[in-house]
TrEMBL record:
<dbReference type="InterPro" id="IPR023210">
    <property type="entry name" value="NADP_OxRdtase_dom"/>
</dbReference>
<dbReference type="InterPro" id="IPR020471">
    <property type="entry name" value="AKR"/>
</dbReference>
<dbReference type="Pfam" id="PF00248">
    <property type="entry name" value="Aldo_ket_red"/>
</dbReference>
<dbReference type="GO" id="GO:0016616">
    <property type="term" value="F:oxidoreductase activity, acting on the CH-OH group of donors, NAD or NADP as acceptor"/>
</dbReference>
<comment type="similarity">
    <text>Belongs to the aldo/keto reductase family.</text>
</comment>
<feature type="domain" description="NADP-dependent oxidoreductase">
    <location>
        <begin position="30"/>
        <end position="263"/>
    </location>
</feature>
<keyword id="KW-0521">NADP</keyword>
<feature type="active site" description="Proton donor">
    <location>
        <position position="55"/>
    </location>
</feature>
<feature type="site" description="Lowers pKa of active site Tyr">
    <location>
        <position position="80"/>
    </location>
</feature>
<dbReference type="InterPro" id="IPR036812">
    <property type="entry name" value="NAD(P)_OxRdtase_dom_sf"/>
</dbReference>
<keyword id="KW-0560">Oxidoreductase</keyword>
<dbReference type="InterPro" id="IPR018170">
    <property type="entry name" value="Aldo/ket_reductase_CS"/>
</dbReference>
<protein>
    <submittedName>
        <fullName>Oxidoreductase</fullName>
    </submittedName>
</protein>
<feature type="binding site">
    <location>
        <position position="113"/>
    </location>
    <ligand>
        <name>substrate</name>
    </ligand>
</feature>
Amino acid sequence: MEITDIHGTVTLSNGVKMPYLGLGVFKSRDGAEVMNAVSYALEAGYRHIDTAAVYRNEAGVGEAIKNHPLDRSEVFITSKVWNSDQGYDSTIKAFYESLERLGTDYLDLYLVHWPVAGKFKDTYKALETLYEEGKVKAIGVSNFLAHHLDELLETAKISPMVNQIEYHPHLTQPDLIQKCLDLNIRPEAWSPLMQGQIFDIKDLQKLTNKYDKNVAQIVLRWNLQKGVITIPKSVNRQRIHSNADIFDFVLSDEDVKHIDHLNQNQRVGADPDNFNF
């Protein structure tokens, strides 16, 4: 992945260009909080906003984008179908409800949020239909492990373009990342900052003086150098700007490997093989 600046993109398997840095809005309250966060991100140069139906803030995200001078076509919007809406017909319905809340007539990327057993294949078929109808520019999955991908690909007509997974220095999932890359599925990190826990990792703090960057900036740069799209979440204007200030330095190969070796297979979120929601 060629890293240039905040407006840089990766090209998905279908040719769609997806910004490799975005703003995540998980747990951002609908209304002023999420609207301000999106506005801060757009002013800082972000062109990618990641939300989901279950976050209950799609309306605020859509309103902030509508109120910004940028044209809708310049902002890459991702949303996801929630578990209780999975299944073919219910996914189609959920998609159009997301569009209405977001105030747009298409999505740039729509994902299956979790691999709900017995349902995710039909859910993904609905995504394929929406893609073929031109309602979404790219489709993919979230929280799919290798065996979920294998099962999906038994019936999928269109290979997922993205797999959004938990990814950070304590959960690097190298085999899953490599499988995605081998299948031309672009990996994307959620919780890249471990919901703030990365600031407690002493090995990362040691790198801050070397690069004159904070821990978050080092980790986000590591994400990109590993070829992983990243969507750090914040509602703080200064931190949103700071998280984007990662294009004037390069981590050495040695330091990238050092961060790789911090892996502990430790999750801050649920295990895709053991979740009940």
